[in-house]
Amino acid sequence: MSDFYEWIRVSFQALAQEGTIPQAFEYGFVINALLCALLIGPLLGGVGTMVVAKRMAFFSQSIGNAAMTGVAIGVLLGESYTEPYISMFCFCILFALLLNYTKGRTQLSSDTLIGVFLSVSLAVGASLLLFVSAKVNTHILEAVLFGSVLTVSNTDMNVLLVVTLVILAVGTPLFNKMLLASLNPSLARARKVPVELMEYIFVLMITLLTVACLKIVGAVLVEALLLIPAAAARNVISSLRGFVILSMIFSTISCIAGVLIPMQFDLPLPSGGAIIMVAASFFIITTIIRATFPAYKEARN
Amino acid sequence: MNIDTLINLTNVSKQFGEHVVLRQVDLDIKRNRIITLIGPNGAGKTTLVKVVLGLLGVDDGKVERSSHLKVGYMPQKLDLEPTIPLQVGRFLQFAEPDKQLCRDALNRTGILQLIDHPVQKLSGGETQRMLLARALLRRPNLLVLDEPVQGVDVTGQEALYQLIASLRDELECGIFMVSHDLHLVMAATDDVVCLNQHVCCSGSPQQVSVDPAFVELFGTKTALYTHRHDHHHDLNLEVISDADQPSGLDHQSKANHAVSTEVGSEVDRGGV
Fold first, then answer.
1. Helix (H, G, I), strand (E, B) or coil at B27
2. Is A239 near chain B, with CB under 8 Å?
3. Could you state, in order of their start, the residue ranges of all structural domains in chain B?
4. CB-based contacts of B127: which residues, under 8 Å, 6+ apart?
């Protein structure tokens, strides 16, 4: 796999030296980040529509926060501090399963419960991370929180690729069932859809996605990228298919632009921040379009 | 088991923890019959529906299902997240990928023109018709309708009950529905089962409405009250004159409410 990445990098670098594409592509890490963006974009955009449908935006936020704890535990246990994937995946999956299990067995409304998990995971994650960052390179903290294209390695790309394939393989055939289960559980049950199982599968999908995107988008911002492209798409579209596709397009453009713009203009911005700002501009533009053109209001409602 | 029987419940009991919800319930759902389940809140109606649908096991008693049983289920209400853009046609496609079958079903319930309409913007009656269309998709021989006229105005309710009755004739299916509403149901159903944990009484609407157990549960006033309009509306809300509708009442307003003192008037509504 790393030979393949190397081949892509060399090809891009050759093109950049000829002047066909921007100079930023002379750097290997920019190409790495771009490849990641091309995977992350459609994935977050597509899954984001489901997150919105299931009102689980803050769920993914708490997974992002839990990932911080995962990083800290990994570093404490002696994993490489740039790629503590084992502890991140293990901790986040346990956290997500616990949260989902509790959700079905409490009197609390789900936003209250997620609020509790969210703040606890933030408190524990931030404390532990600051605690261990004194021992290692402090750069890691920024990278975990807001994403950084500088640190993307072949391992990161492999992890992302595997996660993408898993989510596509599981999510695509189950999309209709999952959406029905979240839209109306009783209808789904009457159709023999295992609603609980769907919920757990979806929760695991979000968890894998969040951990895999951490390097590029950052723990604090994964949730925003799940949410904003879907919200922007919803402003101007009224069909389900169009909603998913447009959300994927918005998200992909945001990821690519968010990675490239800071490089091209030599701005010291974290990639996550830049990506979200681009996504937010889509949201603002679509909101204005919707407010200005009555046709879109009609189309939506 | 009788050849026309779709589902037969014998002596079925169900309890959640210490709380007994169903006690020795017998129920026979047949082809070509409309059975309506009525009962106060907490009577176990929803539990019984779940047992019929096979979503819930029973603690005691026997549930027999016909081997050809194919159930179409219409839920009580549809709560949809408004952020998800969903058109009526696409909603039906969750259940049946074939677009033509979806169109046929919508046509049958009279809302084909709404196929590209956002689900969240449907009126109460339109939503119920969409859910009914959805229940019809797999050509069921048993329709289970949970409060099919909820959120629908009185004229709309009448039209829906008519539609349900005509579906029964067309599909020759059994219909098992739950209702809070006592008046219109009495006219639209073949059999009534009055449930309050156990079956208080059952039979034809005329029998049940004078049954002491029913009267005790719902009171005499309720049982005998009928609501009458002296006119009908078409889909554009225009008033249609209804010459063969016996009114015999003073028309000071367009709509009339009359308290009938005899059970027979319930039966009159049977033709509606």
1. strand
2. yes
3. 5-70+140-262
4. B78, B119, B151
Tell me if A201 is assigned to some domain.
no
Q: How many domains does chain A have?
A: 1
Which of B84, B121, B134 minimises the CB distance to A53? B84
The answer to whether residue A277 is domain-embedded is: yes
A301 touches chain B (CB under 8 A): yes
Please state which architecture CATH assigns to domain B5-70+140-262. 3-Layer(aba) Sandwich (3.40)
Rounded distance between C-alpha atoms, residue B134 and residue A191, angstroms? 12
Min Cα distance A214 → chain B (Å) is 26
Residues of B within an 8 Å Cβ radius of A: 53, 55, 71, 73, 75-76, 78-81, 83-87, 90, 94-95, 118, 120-121, 134
Domain range for residue A262? Answer: 22-44+221-301
Residue A295 falls within a domain, yes or no?
Answer: yes
Would residue A71 count as lying in a domain?
no
The token pair at B254 is 């367009």
State the complex-level ipTM. Answer: 0.71
Give the pLDDT confidence of B10-32 residue by residue, as tens digits.
888 888 888 888 888 888 888 88
Judged by CB atoms closer than 8 Å, whether chains meet at B83 and A238 is answered as no
Residues B95-140: tens digit of each pLDDT:
888 888 899 999 988 888 988 888 888 888 888 899 999 988 888 8
Distance CA A141, CA A126 (A): 9
Nearest-CA neighbor of B197 among B23, B52, B19, B17? B23
Short-list B166, B132, B198, CA closest to B34? B166
Q: CB-CB: which of B78, B90, B121 is closest to A184?
A: B78
**Of B235, B227, B223, the residue nearest B272 (C-alpha):** B227
DSSP letters spanning A46-75: HHHHHHHHTT-HHHHHHHHHHHHHHHHHHH
Residue written as tokens 């930023």? A24
The answer to whether A231 contacts B83, with C-beta atoms less than 8 Å apart, is: yes
The 10s digit of each residue's pLDDT in B205-223 is 777 777 777 777 776 555 4
